[in-house]
Design brief:
The complex is a heterodimer of chains A (about 120) and B (about 110).
Chain A: E1 3-6, E2 10-12, E3 18-25, E4 34-39, E5 46-52, E6 57-60, E7 68-73, E8 78-83, E9 92-100, E10 104-110, E11 114-118
Parallel strand pairs in A: 2-11
Antiparallel strand pairs in A: 1-3, 3-8, 4-5, 4-9, 5-6, 7-8, 9-10, 9-11
Chain B: E1 4-7, E2 10-13, E3 19-25, E4 33-38, E5 45-49, E6 53-54, E7 62-67, E8 70-75, E9 85-90, E10 98-99, E11 103-107
Parallel strand pairs in B: 2-11
Antiparallel strand pairs in B: 1-3, 3-8, 4-5, 4-9, 5-6, 7-8, 9-10, 9-11
Classes of the chains: A mainly beta (about 120), B mainly beta (about 110).
Chain lengths: ~120, ~110
Amino acid sequence: QVQLVQSGAEVKKPGASVRISCKASGYTFGSYSLHWIRQAPGQGLEWMGRIIPILGIANYAQKFQGRVTITADKSTSTAYMELSSLRSEDTAVYYCAREAPRQTTYFDYWGQGTRVTVSS
Amino acid sequence: EIVMTQSPATLSVSPGERVTLSCRASQSVSSKLAWYQQKPGQAPRLLIYGASTRAIGTPARFSGSGSGTDFTLTISSLESEDFAIYYCQQYNKWPPLTFGGGTKVEIK
């Protein structure tokens, strides 16, 4: 069965960086894009970007351009999202999500989420 | 950027009632609209894609309709496990992919 397992919770100081992993299993990793979506406390869902693992190409939301880097390691079926210059507003749960088949850009499987707290 | 607006923000209903949730796009998204259900402490779960196609495992009491800018998610008879927050998401024009602000369905 398809599973996306994310790394554990992080506590970071303002100005630091955080790197979250998302290990995929149960499907051919290279065949599906992986996206990152975040959710601030009590708020809605915000798309951050995606990676096409087979090509290593990433696209980002303009809001995060220059601060976010999404990569993928095909050898370990793991995607990574690194967010730099953290500020308190980056406190959120970060999810990875698999893009549904045939390049239809909705999400059929989600990771369990990784809570990131930014606090001095 | 396409802005997705959901209404109402909160819906108070009793089990067994019929529920209708609305999602409006700031410009046409054709039928490229998905609905998700999120329960407290959990990741969102895909319910509907293509505006009206139920995802695998979505109960038949959930139905989606609409195209262009106006969409509806209907729950024909609310069950206890349906109390959750529901989000719509457009995937017609991106980046960025955008979500609505959510509708919370709570017990009356």
